[in-house]
Amino acid sequence: MLAQMKQAEERAKQAEERAKQAEERAKQAEGRTKEAEKRAEQAGKRAAQAEEKLKQLEEIVAKVPTIEQITTIIQEQVAVSIQQQVAASIQEQLANVAVPTNGSRSYAEVARTPPDSQPSNIRSLTMSTTPSAFTNSLYCTIDISRADEAEKARTHPGAVRECIEREMRGVEGQERWRCVAVTKDPRNADRIRVACRSEGELAQVKEAMLKTAAATPGSRVLRDQLHPIKVDNANRTAVITETGTSDRE
Questions:
Q1: What are phi and psi of 187, to 5 degrees?
Q2: Kindly report the CA angle at 204 between 201 and 208, in degrees rounded to 5?
Q3: Is pTM beyond 0.70 here?
Q4: CA dist list (Å): 89 to 80, 94, 194
Q5: What are the chain's domains?
Q6: How far apart, in whole angstroms, are the C-alpha atoms of residue 86 and residue 80?
Q7: For every residue of 41-108, which 3-state class applies, written as one string?
Q8: CA–CA distance, 145 with 152 (Å, rounded to integer)
Q9: Per residue in 64-112, pLDDT tens?
């Protein structure tokens, strides 16, 4: 009888121990459940934040212009810039147009003029006088008459424009430089003329054209043109040099 009671007590203790272990496991499970709930809550918050950021990114992307819109804006800006440059060039050329005098003097007036008198109807040559003052235009000319037919076909106004713009844009501060106009000489199809905005630009363009001509066999950049002027009502020819002086021929 005592042995049975001891066994019962032993079983009761074991059962109590197992109950405690089960309770401990239940507490641990409850702790893990709470931790899982916290993690789930944090994951939900992160998901909400990610969704909010995604919405913000979508709004930013929606505001960014498309490639077509960017291209249109650039084309409009380039068109406006070209119009402004052409208008400025036209204004400059109009400002340089010489005002005509009251007309040619008669033979009798010329005959009565003393040899040492100063003519009153001609323009004086000064250090600032340039060929553009007589031609009312600034341009540099490349001649391809000595090139073969294959080189002539490749050396067209578009190719010359591309070469000159590449050379000019290599200068610091001129990354967006563009030619005013590149055309064929209407009187000579073997000559290509590059219009310039100013004398300084003319010198730079001429240097760039020399490099272009050096790369094209048979082509050459023409020197300053001969411009007719009047001296005492007699037609003569003068070459205006870089210093503004004239060499009569």
A1: -95, -15
A2: 135
A3: no
A4: 14, 9, 13
A5: 124-248 (3.30.70)
A6: 10
A7: HHHHHHHHHHHHHHHHHHHHHHHCCCHHHHHHHHHHHHHHHHHHHHHHHHHHHHHCCCCCCCCCCCHH
A8: 8
A9: 888 888 888 898 889 888 988 888 888 877 776 644 444 455 545 555 5
